[in-house]
Specification:
CATH class: Mainly Alpha
Radius of gyration: 22 Å
Distance between the termini: 64 Å
Low-confidence stretches: 1-7
Number of domains: 1
Shape: globular
CATH topology: Rhopdopsin 7-helix transmembrane proteins
CATH architecture: Up-down Bundle
Order of helices and strands: EHHHEHHHEHHHHHH
Mean pLDDT: 82
Number of strands: 3
Structural class: mainly alpha
Length: 318
Amino acid sequence: MSIKNRTLVSEFWIQGFQISHTYRILMFSCFLLIYIMIVMGNLLITILIYSNHRLHLPMYIFLCNLSLSEIFFTTSIIPNMLYVIVSGGGVMSYAGCLAQFYVFGSLISTECFLLAVMSYDRYLAICIPLRYNFLMNSRVCFQFSLFSWLSGFLLSVITIVFMTHISFCGSNLIDHFLCDFAPLLNLACSDISKVELQVFVLSISIIVFPFTFIVLTYLSIIRTILSIPSTSGRQKAFSTCSSHLIIVSLYYGTLMFMYSAPSLKMFQNASKPLSLLYIVVTPLCNPIIYSLRSHEIRYVFQKTVTLKIVLYCSGRQT
């Protein structure tokens, strides 16, 4: 699937995973199940929050935005990845490749900003509880959510503009299961130094700054929690913070490795397993870590299920 030297590439061959047919079927079934679980779990959270006024609070509105971004993010990658797995590879056009890179890159940026906003919301609720309703009202909540989405999609335009100035010729083989940044640069036959510099600078504003902000806010949260006299209250708060920080560390840590220094060989060799961490693991953990462990979410879910069962039984009896 290679093209002669100096011939511009019009399509790419996505190599995927080089494994036997039996393992491909097993991997396809596994990732299909995971994708269904991701979509259903995050969709359930979104519906519960949208349909219950009890959950129309900033914390849950941000959760709703995060769940929606996880659905869009995985949908932009996993369906095509499943096709690549079961087929042993697949062809993607130049425009389609850049489109996929833009969409999932924008959603990665959006989630980074949403995670930072969520940490700020928890900081206000725990450290400045008396001013929380004033500082985080519905208007501010909407503005933060809109800012996260717009910033993610607008900042990614810069990268795409730089990418369109790169010439691809020679081999068109992408040793990955998606059109990612580092594999695309490996196929470039023009100068990529400006693109690498631009992405490095952009990754600081999208990844490093929000991550640093999250760490600082949680240091303040932990300091406040330590001053809580109740042991049970401290344990509950620490449990919530530790779960959040685990996901944040996993998500941001992977992105820092992959996009802050994309040309390093050690990162290129580990690109596939590292990609699976934030493409599959984090979206799958999101409903559990952020939502299903919430008392309010569990209460609304149990109440909704109980009501549906009662209505169903009443309908059957009539």
